[in-house]
Design a protein that fits this description.
single chain; about 375 residues; alpha+beta; five-stranded mixed beta sheet; two-stranded antiparallel ribbon; 12 helices; binds zinc ion
């Protein structure tokens, strides 16, 4: 077991962010005086947060598994550890350190915070500026829902959380902190969905190949399943996922009579996306019949509940690390998926030249560079 003290404001600001797991580590946040504090667990592993008063009395003790904001009562020491760790043996050491503390001042740029954090902060402030342009100083939830895409709203609340967390340590632009509070308050009812959308709902059509999967001519991506007309705007991003779409040209749409042939639409999308479409389909069915699993954790599986897909992207996982939109390269297709694909593509005669399987193969081979080692 390891004990780390986080004493300077820069150290405190980073905390457990970007750690894979806290395991045996004990992070002790030590402040010069007693205050109410807001911690966020964004980019943090599952952890236990314990807060202590100046006298060493435990005023807060909870295991936080989800990414969220945690409001702590008046406290001077905060401990973060793995959920199972017993921190008590360290308490005396932690408490004994307090007299030697330097007083915290405003954080100097570059001191302690690394480049990544500074660019995140700059982005967060820019997000708040956009909010102010859209709303002036009073946040109107209606404007927020109309004006911004769901994934943008997710990124904006993440930014707001960041800013609040840093607001003690850094000198931030006037108004940004107030706006952050208001945005979080306005978005609170939607927070799970919009944070999921901030990863899984980002636009992808510009980057994906857009030739027809049947004939290879210029095409557009056509969604297949549609939401109920009264579905809340916050869930619509899943219907805009690539797993619910096929690239098909006008000409082939006509030839196949695709718009009037639902089973052909399903053959094409199911054949193209295999288990990834099937997982999305299960979510679609469940949300219509209000049968989503109660224990679905959208912070670990933002796309769909864990039990709907396999373990890997190829087998339909909806896990956070596989949530960014990707083309159908290396999807695991069963023989049934291949049959569905062939039914869809070759059931009608081609007019003019016979294109064969080249356009489809190009589509299936296409991939984006997914950055490795992304520690989110
Ligand atoms: Zn076509």
């Amino acid at each position: 077991m390891q004990l780390h003290f986080l004493i300077t404001s820069g150290q405190r600001a980073t905390g457990a962010m970007f750690m894979e797991s806290l395991n045996e580590t004990v992070l002790a946040f030590i402040y010069p005086d007693e205050h109410k504090r807001t911690f966020h667990t964004f980019f943090c592993p599952s952890m236990r947060i314990v807060a202590l008063s100046t006298e060493g009395q435990v005023v807060f003790d909870e295991v936080i598994a989800k990414w969220k904001w945690v409001r702590l009562p008046e406290c001077r020491y905060v401990i973060e550890t793995g959920p199972q760790v017993d921190y008590r043996p360290f308490m005396n050491t932690i408490l004994s350190l307090s007299p030697a503390l330097p007083q915290s001042g405003a954080l100097e740029p570059g001191a302690g915070l690394d480049q990544l954090l500074f660019s995140l902060l700059a982005e967060a402030v820019a997000d708040m500026r956009r909010i102010r342009e859209a709303h002036q100083y009073k946040i109107d939830p209606k404007i927020q829902r109309q004006r911004f895409a769901t994934w943008e709203r997710g990124q904006i609340v993440s930014s707001a959380g960041f800013l609040l967390d840093f607001s003690d340590a850094c000198h931030l632009p006037d108004g940004a902190v107030k706006l952050s509070h208001s945005v979080l308050k306005a978005e609170e009812p939607y927070i799970d969905e919009i944070v999921a959308a901030s990863v899984g709902g980002i636009p992808w059509r510009q980057e994906f190949p857009s030739h027809c999967m049947r004939c290879g001519k210029p095409a557009s991506w056509r969604p297949i399943l549609s939401p109920k007309s009264n579905a809340p705007v916050e869930i619509l991003w899943r219907y805009q996922r690539p797993e619910n779409a096929i690239p098909i040209c006008h000409h082939c749409t006509e030839t196949l009579n695709l718009l009037r042939d639902e089973s052909l639409q399903l053959d094409l999308v199911r054949g193209l996306w295999g288990p990834r479409f099937e997982a999305l389909w299960q979510w679609h069915r469940a949300i219509r019949t209000k049968r989503l699993p109660k224990d679905w954790d959208p912070y670990t599986h933002p796309l769909w509940p864990q039990e709907y897909g396999g373990e890997e992207w190829e087998s339909g996982s909806g896990a956070l690390k596989f949530a960014e939109p990707r083309p159908p390269h290396r999807v695991l297709r069963s023989e049934q998926h291949m049959q569905a694909l062939r039914r869809g593509l070759f059931s009608k005669k081609f007019r003019g030249r016979q294109p064969g399987e080249t356009p489809l193969q190009k589509l299936l081979d296409f991939r984006l560079d997914i950055p490795k080692g992304d520690s989110r």
